Amino acid sequence: MKKIVLLASLFGFMLLILSSCGEAKDYSDTYNPDTDYQYFLLEQGRAIQSGESDTGYYFLNNNYIYYMDKGAMKPVLLDNRPESDCLKQTATAPISNCNAYVSNLDGLFGGFLAYNDHHLYVLESAQVLDKDRAVTRYSLIRLSLDGTKRTKVLEFKFRPMAIAIHRGIVYYSSQDFDVNSDGKYQIFQYDLNKRFAKPKQVYLGKLEKGSIGDIIPYGKNVYFLEAGIQNGANLYRTFRYDIQDETVTGMFTGDPKANCALVGILHDRLIFNKFYGDVKDPKSWVIYEADLQGNHEAPLPIERDFFTFYYAADKYIFGQPASIYMTPEQLKAAPDAYRMTVYDQQYQPIDTVDLSFLPKDHNLLPGDDRYMFAHYRKEDASYIAYLDKQELGSGKAKFKTLIKTDHPDTVITQMEK
User: Fold this and answer.
1) Residue 417: band (very low, low, confident or very high) from pLDDT cuts 50, 70, 90
2) H helix or E strand, kind and range, residue 349
3) Does the keyword Signal belong to this entry (predicted)?
4) What angle do CA 18, 151, 170 make, to 5 degrees?
5) Helix, coil or strand: residue 228
6) What is the Rg, in whole angstroms, of the alpha carbon atoms belonging to the chain?
7) CB contact set of 10 (below 8 Å; sequence gap of 6+)
8) Once rounded to an integer, what is the mean pLDDT over residues 291-314?
9) pLDDT by residue (tens digit) across 5-37?
10) CB-based contacts of 99: which residues, under 8 Å, 6+ apart?
11) Coil, strand, or helix at residue 391?
């Protein structure tokens, strides 16, 4: 009996030593391309649908995953087996043998794809029976980089409004649509490295008709955007969750009349704007910077003559005129209404790029050090276009089609010359 007790004690002691020698958590603000959230591929207001590895890029387009080698720059379906049924879906024959397919019942722009720690993660949805009625359920799936191995990581009762994976943790926002829930919305975190882990609440929202938009982890912080109604007025605001201290702090709160949103990160500086409720108000045209805690705010020396959508990453800030808010007279008088201005690290304009090919419903991704991307849909096809940043400053930079996926059963992949 004593031997059994002794062995049990030794075993417990060894487990304690092993657990104490585990990999330490990373609370630095140094970007790690393998484990950190790829903030430069965020589609503002939507989920991330692209990922970058050491060797190439992954794109989700019309529910199919494409891979593009950085050397060849020729996108291909992740599953090119002759026996697969990729791109052959019909009303009576759903996809059943395609490693590149992501089941998504929420439409073309409801998808999620991310690269993290040498895996791909996607959000899938499916119809299931719940108390004799069909309901949609959602699952976060981890894929091998070739798509052949799939593991269900996490299940959701309702579709997450935003998802971000960062340093082994899944951050996601959830809104309860049960009859008696009053639309309760919150943010959870889930540890991918712990067996039997359960989601842990990070933030509980209390705004009327509130929701959580973008979730953007960077370093030891997770930034998120909350929107809703307070005292009868629409508002949106940005918060910072400190991963190490486990605290949530409001950001950019110096002016209570301003709605503030993070639009990018540039060399450990947060780039954000302040909206005062009217696109014609010149105060809403100014863009700002701050440190990673949201302190030391300062306006940037970028002058605009109309409300602008901004994107920032790597070496550049991109300014896109908000032409959707312009009157026909303003559009006629503004020759650059459909041109994006590119600013360098000294905030000087170095080029403009034509955006007239984009429909109203589109997303621009600031991208890595080499490419910027555009994700959009026209008529019956979904597109991904790219901009080669090496051409910036030449006056010849332009977006070129990278992937075109026709609906529902044809695919064309090409790299325009």
Assistant:
1) very low
2) strand 349-354
3) yes
4) 65
5) strand
6) 23
7) none
8) 96
9) 444 444 444 444 444 444 678 999 999 999 999
10) 78, 79, 81, 84, 146, 147, 148
11) helix
| 392 torsion bin: left (phi>0), alpha (psi -120 to 50), beta (else) | beta
Give me the sign of the Cα torsion angle 343, 274, 49, 170: positive
Residue pair 258/252 in contact by the 8 Å Cβ criterion: yes
| Residue 279: per-residue pLDDT | 94
Amino acid at 307: F
Region 232-244 average pLDDT: 96
Strands (E), 194-297: 200-204, 208-218, 221-230, 233-242, 247-250, 259-265, 270-275, 287-290
Burial letters 361-371, b for 16+ CB under 10 A, else e: ebbbbbbbeeb
Backbone angles phi, psi at 19, to 5 degrees: -70, -35
Which residue type is seen at 156? F
Identify residue 234 by its one-letter amino acid code. Answer: N
Considering the entire predicted model, what is its pTM?
0.89
Single-letter amino acid, residue 186: Q
Instruction: Check: CB of residue 185 under 8 Å from CB of residue 175.
Output: yes
Residue range 159-180: mean pLDDT, rounded: 88
DSSP symbols for 82-133: TT--TT---SSS---S-TTB---SS-TT---EEEETTEEEEEEEEEEEETTE
- Choose the weakest-confidence range: 113-127, 176-190, 378-392: 176-190
The DSSP bridge pattern shows strands 64-69 and 56-61 to be antiparallel
